[in-house]
Amino acid sequence: MITILVAEDDIKLNKLIRAVLESNGYKADMALNGQSAYEMFCEKHYDLIISDIMMPIADGYQLAENIRKINSTVPILFMTAIDDFDAKKRGYSLGIDDYMVKPIDVEELALKIGALLRRSQIVSERKLVVGNTTLIYDSLTAQLPDGEIELPQKEFYILYKLLSNPGKIFTRSQLMEEFWGANSDTVERTVDVHITRIRDKFKSSEDFEIVTIRGLGYKAIKKQK
Question: How confident is the model at residue 125, as a pLDDT?
Fold first, then answer.
């Protein structure tokens, strides 16, 4: 199911947006400030972010900036009472994808969400195919010629991340921040443990391998056939 994270400190509007999203078939997680939203984003996969700008603790600009440091593709929609060109310019410069001015038309909101999801191809591309291996995001499974493997959540997300960017090096710190959160007490050694488990499960794969880059982190390499 498509899951959307909403950062909105107006409790009544927060509840309204949840109702709109759920009535359109989406799962909605709600946060009351940018800091909470960022922590939630680091702990879980989200397909789209909806954020107010003016919020306590951390505002929408800070949220967008922090998200873009670790994820360049998830769609971000600003929804705010600030109808000002400079505000829009700042938002777009930070990497947001769309901007709505309150009061919100709920039908327009639903249309914009659908357009953003289609644009990012999230609706149709919930699986990743690498040779004879297919990763199914919604079920956290890998389909192989000789059967199916169900992976623990973090193992799946790490593998999906690496295989979505073949040849790109991800440091242990980057993987820690994205999948455990910036403020996690978990040590980087945990990443190594998860990589070892992934390798063990796919040790016979003829499609890819996870390569250690000494002193940095890991990358996925597609095998040539």
Answer: 62
Query: How far is the first Cα of the chain from the last one, in angstroms, to the nearest whole number?
Result: 35
pLDDT digit string, tens, across residues 123-143: 556 788 899 999 988 788 999
- Hey, what amino acid is at 205? S
Integer Rg of the chain from CA: 19
Q: Within its chain, how far is the Cα of 4 from the centroid?
A: 10
Task: Count other Cβ atoms within 10 Å, centred on residue 137.
Answer: 16
- Kindly report the backbone phi and psi dihedral angles of residue 20, in degrees, each rounded to the nearest multiple of 5, phi listed first: -65, -45
Look at the chain and count its residues. 225
3-state helix, strand, coil in the chain (%, to 5): 40, 25, 35
The DSSP-derived string for 16-72 is HHHHHHHHTT-EEEEESSHHHHHHHHHHS--SEEEE-SS-SSS-HHHHHHHHHHH-S
Closest CA to 80 of 13, 21, 26, 19: 13
* Closest C-alpha to 193, from 168, 213, 176: 176
CA dihedral 177→90→74→16, nearest 10 degrees, is: 110
